[in-house]
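Design review, sub-item: ligand-bound model
Attendees: FS, YL, KQ
YL presented the inputs for the IPE complex:
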Amino acid sequence: MPDPRPVPVPRAIDRASVPRHVAIVMDGNGRWAAKRGLARTEGHGAGEKALVDVTYGAISLGVKVLTVYAFSTENWRRPLEEVRYLMNFNRGLLERNRDDLHDQGVRITFSGRSDRRVPKRVVRDMNDAQELTLKNTVMTLNIAFNYGGRAEIVDAVRRLVKDKVPESKINEKAIAARLYHPELADPDLVIRTSGEYRISNFLLWELAYSELVFSDQLWPDFRRENLFEAVREYQRRERRYGGVDT
Ligand code: IPE
Ligand code: IPE
Ligand code: MG
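KQ shared the predicted structure:
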């Protein structure tokens, strides 16, 4: 995947305040396909181009972590055929892109629950991609797969119990340390495509103070220019964290 389309970062973007961690709800694949009279799965397939392009855009911006929502704990409710397609598609996506991502210095990680419904070969490919890219430092591409924000908090609580943490030691730090990837830090910017204004169980704990940007683009149409626009919008915001501006 040598950068197919080198697009310079617009000068309007302040390189000194690029969001360190960007998280994206890649939504609208089904509607993109329906508009074209295609099967929903074709929309998922078309989303790969968007993901690759946005990943390059994020690297050129200097983003350090890009978390993408690929499959939620609720997406099992979809028709069996679509679920099956998504499992294989995500595996194929890894196979098609992991070597190029590795060449670019991207570390691939996953957030989500392990689940017996995820085919073994998918798990194997996820582990392989993770292992191959473990030492890369340019950017982390964190793929939220079988991910649910509530499930993540439940899993963290289970770990607290397992670690026998006494009640007096249970605080935000103790919980945050037991989330799937505490080392990635919270997202600064969360983007959702497709004109939906909801979180859909994404990163519930981590997005407490993230800036939210909503885009009307359907995910397969989203490109790095749209990421740059979202970052400009982010840079116009004032983050206060509950304090007052002095
Ligand atoms: C997002 O697109 C991809 C996944 C949830 C896997 P959708 O499949 O939700 O597309 P819409 O929202 O139905 O258009
Ligand atoms: C969120 O999108 C999940 C992913 C993008 C993987 P959904 O399409 O599943 O969310 P809802 O159903 O519109 O809330
Ligand atoms: Mg959707």
